[in-house]
Amino acid sequence: MSEPRILVTNDDGIESPGFRALYEALEDVGDPVAVAPYSNQSAVGRARSFEATVHEYELGYAVEGTPVDCVIAGVEALCPDVDVVVAGCNKGANLGSYVMGRSGTVSAAVEATFFDVPAIAVSQYVPTTDDEEFENLTPPKEAYADACDAAAYLVEESLGSAVFDGADYLNVNAPAPDATEGRPPMTVTEPSPLYAMSAEFDGETIRLEDNIWQRMQRGDIPDEEGTDRRAVVDGEISVSPLAAPHSVERHEHLDELAAKYRV
């Protein structure tokens, strides 16, 4: 296969260190063009706009919109000859079934699949300590190296293979960086079903919190072998091959209810 044309997007914004790290890694394996949000769009899921201003940028285009806007704009108008969409590199892991629809990074990959364009979502686990707020952390570009190396490897090796015959998109998560030399091992996983959201109401304000992050930092997660979160906590790069359309399961009980509705 000739050098692939790569649409690079994210949800942390086009100026984020993770985006720059990913773009530079992909330069080694293809011809990347940036079509990324002008500002931070984290956790917007598959939200889209009806109109978005586009700015020319040194690496391509900055769009005043969501990650989904960027994919639609890129594939349909700004760079319609792309071979693959790569979204990231996200600051923070995107792990577990319940995160898939919430993440702007993953949602960009999902949107690409509806255009029949292979896609990869790439995220870097960033642990915190008790005295750190995740929102205030700004890891340097070098902190994303493992995730970006994995993304470049998968672009180079998967497009000419049958990988995307069996998956619509790949969700890639790298473990916390450590001092070990060499690449972390890569393992194929499934999204963890564990859900750990909680809500506390003080009479005026509701606080919503994802309690899984504290458990990940302590290493006491109950996730089974083969799940994405277990792999990342164990120091492995997780790659989940996923399908974008919602699955449909017919069963006789619902058929019976539907049949009775007009009786």
UniProtKB/TrEMBL annotation:
UniProt EC number: 3.1.3.5
One Pfam family named in its UniProt record: SurE
GO MF annotation, one: metal ion binding
Residues binding a divalent metal cation, per UniProt: 11-12, 42, 90
SUPFAM superfamilies per the UniProt record, alphabetical: SurE-like (SSF64167)
Keyword flag Transport: no
Principal place of residence: cytoplasm
A single cellular component GO annotation: cytoplasm
Catalysed reaction equations from the record: a ribonucleoside 5'-phosphate + H2O = a ribonucleoside + phosphate
Transmembrane segments: none
Function: Nucleotidase that shows phosphatase activity on nucleoside 5'-monophosphates.
Family as reported in the entry's similarity comment: Belongs to the SurE nucleotidase family.
Name of the protein in its database record: 5'-nucleotidase SurE
Organism: Halolamina salina
